[in-house]
Amino acid sequence: MRNHPSPPGSISRRALLTGTAAAAGVGLAGCGSITGGLSGRTRVKQWNLLAGGDGAIMTEMHGDFSAEHPDVELQATTFGWGTPFYTRLVMGASSGNASDIATIHLSRLKSLSPGTLMDPIGVDELKDHGLNPEDFPEKIWEKAFADDELYAIPLDTHALVNYYNKDVCGQVGALNPDGTLLVTDGVEEYFDLLRAVKEVTGEFGTSLDTFGGWRQFWAWYRQQDGEMTFADGDYEMDDDKALAAIEIMYKMAEEGLCPTFADGGQCSANFETGAAGLVQVGNWEINRFKLFNPDNPEWFSMTEMPSFYNGNRYTQGDCHSFVLPRHNSWDPDVREAALEYAAYMLQHSFRWGEGGGHTPAYLPVTESAEYQALQPNAEYSGVVQNVQFDPDAWFSGSAARLFDETGSIFNQVYALAMTPEDALALMKERIETLLALPSPVD
Amino acid sequence: MTVKTEAPPVPAAMTRPPQANAKKTSWTGLWFVLPFAAFYALFLVYPTFLGLYYSFTDKSLTGRAASWIGLENWAEAFGDERAWAALKNTAVFTLWSTPILVILAIVFALLVHRARKMGWFLRMAFFAPFVVPVSVVTMVWTWIYQPDGGLLNHYLQLFGIQDASTPQIWLQGENGIAMWSVVITTVWWTLGFNFLLYLAALQTIDPNVYEASSIDGANWWQQLRSITLPLLNRTTAMVITLQLIASLRIFDQMYIMTGGGPNRETEVAIHYIYIAGFEGFRIGYASALSYVLFVLILVVSVFQFRLFSRKED
């Protein structure tokens, strides 16, 4: 079992049906990159990995796009999150038969061998569709380049955040007068909060995804200003800081403050059922939690990750971005329509932020007064500054091998089946093995 | 297909030799085979040889130019500890699952064969799981094995076998627990196929044999040992061969249910090939690993089949 996003809530049945219909459509339409078809419309095929609650929002936005662009036939297909998606993207692109546009995690750009598998995007092309480089945060915009070519159009920033059940946290007096969660400083202070919450819930203090341990590790390691760099077959990491981060996992699980085992689905379910009063999970679960109690969608709120070290509220995160997989030949109309689609999604990403919980990368949206006032998004808006991207290596990034292989170790730590010391030793061994592999993208 | 080889009496006036006629008939048959043969060649024979070729190159999924590297992939495969561990896990799964899948299939087939009423229901009940797709089977069983709120732990706690504060983790359980969990799922799912083969074989046994033996005073147990099982020998040889091949090719359940965990305890051969090829983009190396597994399965099958056919002689 991987770190799949949780099974989506009820609305996503619609998303699932749409996805299935789209998949069936692709099947019927055959594999060729056909423009038009019977309707005479320009067909744009989109592949995405948004199988969670945010996928439903994307489907909704696709409906709006199609309504406003009757001449474009958008065929979106959702694949299983992570490796299943990337496998298809890479195989499709290596034969030149992938979709016209696809979503990726920006941290995976280099691992996807953009030079051979992706088609570069001209900055002028973007400008023609109303997107300018200055409309993006600089840190993210730079990451969209590889070998001085622009390959990705960033859609959002997403990160681990801290959700809290207002009722439960109110009962233990952990809320400020304005109803927001008290800011804690240091591991012990936060553990005290979890202990108090555990008293109320009778089960856990916080829930988290024990299969996605890399995310938590990276947040807590970076909060200590730990560095991890890979270069020339060697790597550098701070063992003491890494051990401290792993020890947090072990101690939290040992004391019963968090589950010893919870996949993506159960992680969120623990929060919904009240087994846990808090949950450290990605902002993309916002839609699921709102739908859990439609009569009172404000039963919870969200804030940034608690600071464990140095007053840092760093968190692990990534960016969903659009890329153009390599085509054997581009139909100019299709390329035009694909970029028009990307521009539309960015310019209308207010909904993406409101419904999907992601912070839009497109600054005209995030800087708008309307977005600034949006709750609970405003409460965790600081993640954009505090987000920590995965280390730079071909095997690193969301759902990449470092994520998977260390995740399976951390899963054992949460299960109390492995001591932090053993886990660190094994983690280093795994990293060394990955480094010894020939890089497929050089 | 029958081909006439005997030449009919030929009138002297006929110019064409009769052999040509016979040949023509056989070519017609080929046309019927062609669609399948083309499909087979394109999607099985060609990729098989292409894979063998790739195993001598550093072919990458990223589409970068591949170059011939000789036996490097093969040397790496034989020295790869993770590959050997995966093969060992595959062997463990095979050794644990095969006997259960064969013995339970016989037992259930015997039960259903004797059932006078409700036979149709039992046949359906035992076979039904086999037609369910793997994604559904694994999803249902993942729910059953869920530590908190899963069906299995729920009942274990209800009967007081398990303490609710320390729920058993099944699919990431160490020391073989995860492996056994998958074995049980697999047995539930695929038993129906072996069961059906045995049931069909049981129905071909002449009832007169049983009648004759009862007249001679044989009891049920003697009949089973001396008549039924020996007459099922051919089926057993086939079932074991098919089962070994199926078990050695285990991938889906592991990939979906355990992801190879805990700590690679259930990482099986094909899963590692998948990781090397599709996560690591190393098609060349993954091809070499595939061939190692292919040869291994071939050896096991041939050896096992010979063993059984010799017994029968």
TrEMBL record, chain A:
<protein>
    <submittedName>
        <fullName>Extracellular solute-binding protein</fullName>
    </submittedName>
</protein>
<dbReference type="InterPro" id="IPR006059">
    <property type="entry name" value="SBP"/>
</dbReference>
<dbReference type="InterPro" id="IPR050490">
    <property type="entry name" value="Bact_solute-bd_prot1"/>
</dbReference>
<dbReference type="Pfam" id="PF01547">
    <property type="entry name" value="SBP_bac_1"/>
</dbReference>
<dbReference type="InterPro" id="IPR006311">
    <property type="entry name" value="TAT_signal"/>
</dbReference>
TrEMBL record, chain B:
<dbReference type="GO" id="GO:0005886">
    <property type="term" value="C:plasma membrane"/>
</dbReference>
<keyword id="KW-0472">Membrane</keyword>
<feature type="transmembrane region" description="Helical">
    <location>
        <begin position="30"/>
        <end position="54"/>
    </location>
</feature>
<dbReference type="InterPro" id="IPR035906">
    <property type="entry name" value="MetI-like_sf"/>
</dbReference>
<keyword id="KW-1133">Transmembrane helix</keyword>
<feature type="transmembrane region" description="Helical">
    <location>
        <begin position="91"/>
        <end position="112"/>
    </location>
</feature>
<feature type="transmembrane region" description="Helical">
    <location>
        <begin position="124"/>
        <end position="144"/>
    </location>
</feature>
<feature type="region of interest" description="Disordered">
    <location>
        <begin position="1"/>
        <end position="20"/>
    </location>
</feature>
<comment type="similarity">
    <text>Belongs to the binding-protein-dependent transport system permease family.</text>
</comment>
<dbReference type="GO" id="GO:0055085">
    <property type="term" value="P:transmembrane transport"/>
</dbReference>
<keyword id="KW-0812">Transmembrane</keyword>
<feature type="transmembrane region" description="Helical">
    <location>
        <begin position="177"/>
        <end position="200"/>
    </location>
</feature>
<keyword id="KW-1003">Cell membrane</keyword>
<dbReference type="InterPro" id="IPR051393">
    <property type="entry name" value="ABC_transporter_permease"/>
</dbReference>
<feature type="domain" description="ABC transmembrane type-1">
    <location>
        <begin position="87"/>
        <end position="304"/>
    </location>
</feature>
<protein>
    <submittedName>
        <fullName>Sugar ABC transporter permease</fullName>
    </submittedName>
</protein>
<dbReference type="InterPro" id="IPR000515">
    <property type="entry name" value="MetI-like"/>
</dbReference>
<feature type="transmembrane region" description="Helical">
    <location>
        <begin position="288"/>
        <end position="308"/>
    </location>
</feature>
<dbReference type="Pfam" id="PF00528">
    <property type="entry name" value="BPD_transp_1"/>
</dbReference>
<keyword id="KW-0813">Transport</keyword>
